[in-house]
Amino acid sequence: MSFITKSKEVVLEEILNTAQTEEVINIIKSFSKYVINNSELSTTLYSLNKELGEKDYNSDAYQYQKYICENLINNKTFTPTINNLRFKGMIEDIPTLFDNVIGEEGSYIKLNKMLTEMHDLIIKYSEKRFFKNRYLNKIKSISSDVTRIIEDYEKKCIFK
């Protein structure tokens, strides 16, 4: 398994990108249920389904982090706000808006740093043959902290 490295400030956005990519691929795969006369498109759909199988596509990237952030990804305030800011080219406003909902300055950056640390620990965990519990315990601890921030965001959102 190969891992990617990203800036500590954008890991949450990468997790969101991964979830959205899975959704888009699954929508495209669903087109194979229809009769399509365009041979190029039908061949592409056939190849996609052959390669990925009949089940929904799930990326290996950020699997655990995506699971931990699932409530945030599905939040009706967070994801549309991120998408809207991206569309308008205002991604630098994401941390401020997140912090305003939480009510604590720096919470967005803190969340991203924890997700990055978790990602790095998962890599180290996968590379180790012995003494894995040390990494596992750190991952669990960070997961609890991430979950608390996400729960705090959920509580303070109007649209969930």
Please write out the topology.
Blueprint: H1 11-30, H2 39-52, H3 63-68, H4 70-73, H5 78-87, H6 94-102, H7 107-127, H8 132-156
Helix pairs in contact: 7-8
Largest sheet: none
List SSEs in N-to-C order.
Answer: HHHHHHHH
Specify the structural class.
Answer: mainly alpha
Q: How many beta-strand elements?
A: 0
What does this structure look like?
The chain is mostly helical. The chain has one domain. The protein is 68% helix and 0% strand. The chain has 8 helices and no strands.
Task: Supply database-style keywords.
mainly alpha, single chain, 160 residues
Question: Summarize this, please?
Answer:
The protein is mainly α. It has eight helices and no strands. It has one domain.
